[in-house]
Design brief:
Elements: H1 6-14, H2 26-43, E1 47-50, E2 53-56, H3 68-75, E3 80-81, H4 82-90, H5 93-109, E4 113-118, E5 124-129, H6 131-146, H7 153-164, H8 174-188, H9 194-214
Helix pairs in contact: 1-2, 1-5, 1-7, 2-7, 2-9, 4-9, 7-9
Length: 215
């Protein structure tokens, strides 16, 4: 997998051709970007999720500084209900914009994308390019999920997020998408992946509930 975090890979694969988040479907794209940040911090053992409560476990590593907004929101309290955390970040466009820019700026620093301005008023950041990185990420997902061999946690999480935000079809044929979803179903029965799927499902369910309630 590309040597960048899950939320960075998610942003790369989820922005539109102009490098931004299109108005149509933006709530779902934004929601799963929040989920990608939460899951990345869980996998890095920076935060924990238990009984629908999220809590800080250790200081935010310097290489995860782009997720500072998510981390700070959690650290404001001893622990915070997952639904409260997700709703606060998903429904606040200003906070999402800050997170989007923070993640995107790191991709600029890595020379993966170029930052431009766009949107209706021309005051929204857009992150364009990154085609080679996108290709490597997709090819790694294809290799792990459509061929024999081990599947990494990053691939399980990223593919689940892309299924959730309906982006997978951009990169895989209809046949490949069906095969990939079938492999995901098989992995759910594997004890080695049971815990990660439980976390993904819990966060995805929370996200779906929020999307349904705010429209």
């Amino acid at each position: 997998m590309e040597n960048i975090g899950i939320s960075q890979m998610y942003l790369l694969l989820s922005v539109n051709d102009k490098g931004g988040v299109a108005p149509i479907g933006s709530m779902r794209t934004r929601s799963y970007m929040i989920a990608s940040g939460i899951l990345e911090l869980i996998l890095e053992d920076v935060i924990s999720l238990s009984e629908d409560e999220v809590a800080v476990k250790r200081d935010l590593p310097s290489d995860k500084e782009y997720l500072r907004l998510v981390y700070n929101k959690i650290s404001e309290e001893t622990s915070i209900p997952l639904k409260k955390l997700a709703r606060a970040l998903v429904t606040n466009r200003k906070l999402f914009k800050e997170l989007f820019n923070s993640i995107g700026d790191t991709l600029v620093e890595l020379n993966i994308v170029t930052k431009t301005s766009g949107g209706v008023l021309g005051n929204s950041s857009q992150f364009v390019g990154g085609e080679e990185s996108k290709k490597r990420i997709v090819e790694q997902m294809r290799a792990e999920l459509l061929e024999e061999g081990p599947v990494s946690k990053d691939t399980v999480v990223l593919s689940s997020l892309l299924i959730g935000n309906h982006t997978l079809k951009r990169y895989f044929s209809e046949f490949e998408e069906d095969e990939l979803k079938g492999k995901i179903s098989e992995l759910r029965e594997d004890p080695a992946h049971k815990e990660i799927f439980a976390m993904v499902d819990r966060i995805s369910h929370t996200i779906t509930t929020i999307i349904a309630s705010v429209g």
